[in-house]
Amino acid sequence: MSNLSIKQLETFRAVMRSGSVTVAAKTLCRTQPAVSSMIVGLEKELGLTLFERQKGRLIPNPEAYFLLEETDAILERLTRSTQLMAEVKNLTRGKLRIACMPAAALFFMPHVIAEYVKDRPEVEVSMMMRSSTIVQDWIASQQYDIGYSELPKDRDSFHVEPIQLEGVCALHKDHPLASKPLITPKDLDNVPLAALFTRHSASEHTRLLFEEHNVTYRPRFELQNYISGFEFVEQQLCACICDPISAASYKLYKGNQGNVVFRPFAPTIAYDHAILTPAHKPMSKLAEIFALNIRQAVDAFVSDINDF
Questions:
Q1: Closest CA to 177 of 233, 222, 226, 254
Q2: Which three-class secondary structure state does DSSP give residue 300?
Q3: Long-range contacts of 117-124 (CB under 8 A, 24+ apart)
Q4: Which of 73-87, 97-111, 163-177, 272-286 has the lowest mean pLDDT?
Q5: What pLDDT does 259 receive?
Q6: Smallest Cα–Cα separation from 152: which of 76, 99, 193?
Q7: What is the DSSP letter of 19?
Q8: What is the pLDDT of residue 270?
Q9: Nearest to 169 by CA among 194, 147, 148, 152
Q10: Is the four-CA dihedral 208, 239, 181, 151 of positive or negative sign?
Q11: Environment class of residue 306 by beta-carbon count within 10 Å: exposed (0-12), middle (13-18) or buried (19+)?
Q12: Are 262 and 170 in contact (CB under 8 A)?
């Protein structure tokens, strides 16, 4: 049984469907002796007599009809599998598992996914939002195909493509500073701010930058993400130095109805993000192309956040 071939099954099915070795040979573009030899070989492999030979004709035994049913199922499954793999090769079918940090998961990543699958109706996507630390652990353990997080420390268990973004300042459109084309630490001296929690690297960097410029850093609202802070800016309770993906997400969500505007901030506060992929698991072509799309989409997504 281990030596059965697809050609034997195809030949057997052609003989059963046509009822004739001659017709089957024409259908398969083979010689009649070749078809007969294939049937004899199939019977030897199975240890069964599938046909009675009567006056040059093959008369199927009951076992032949049973085998025909199984053969149809096998060959149809093979055809379907071949079609599916062709679709996978052409990036029109498959599944992507994405883990993403909150700042990018609310608007940016869904935007990238929507563009990617628009012309791929058979591609399925699973996206989970977790903290950067958990995203990194999931990619390290190969539970997900692609991760988007804050830049991690080097680990052997995943590959890292760094993405560096420059921070911007969020202000209410009626704030006096909104008329300035560039915001500096001196402009925000003792101005209430919405910021990430104290131990976050961005908050620490901002605090040190304010100290270098001899101005008061005043984080009135400490949060898990900047998007939450934009509501306080809307209510004219504070300003916010934030990453541009959060800023672009706000603008995408609010459109022309938002009261928050964004201005460049200097000196630069860098927000280091990264695309992560498992180091010990080959990437599918679908995931490989999607990872490239993320990098390209970042630049496009944040390109129009400044109103000047």
A1: 233
A2: helix
A3: 120/91, 120/92, 120/93, 122/87, 122/92, 122/93, 122/94, 123/91, 123/92, 123/93, 123/94, 123/95, 123/96, 123/286, 124/94, 124/95, 124/96
A4: 73-87
A5: 94
A6: 99
A7: S
A8: 92
A9: 194
A10: positive
A11: middle
A12: yes
The rounded distance, in Å, linking the Cα atoms of 264 and 182 is: 5
pLDDT of 1 reads 46
Q: Which residue has the tokens 């390109």?
A: 303
Q: From 254, 268, 238, select the one nearest 165 (Cα to Cα).
A: 268
- Rounded CA-CA distance 160/147 in Å is 10
pLDDT of 53-67, one tens digit each? 887 788 888 888 888
Condensed to tens digits (0 to 9), the pLDDT of residues 119-144 reads: 888 889 999 999 999 999 999 999 99
E strands in the chain: 51-54, 57-60, 93-100, 122-129, 146-150, 158-166, 168-172, 192-196, 218-223, 240-242, 260-264, 270-278
pTM: 0.68
User: What's the residue count for the chain?
Assistant: 308
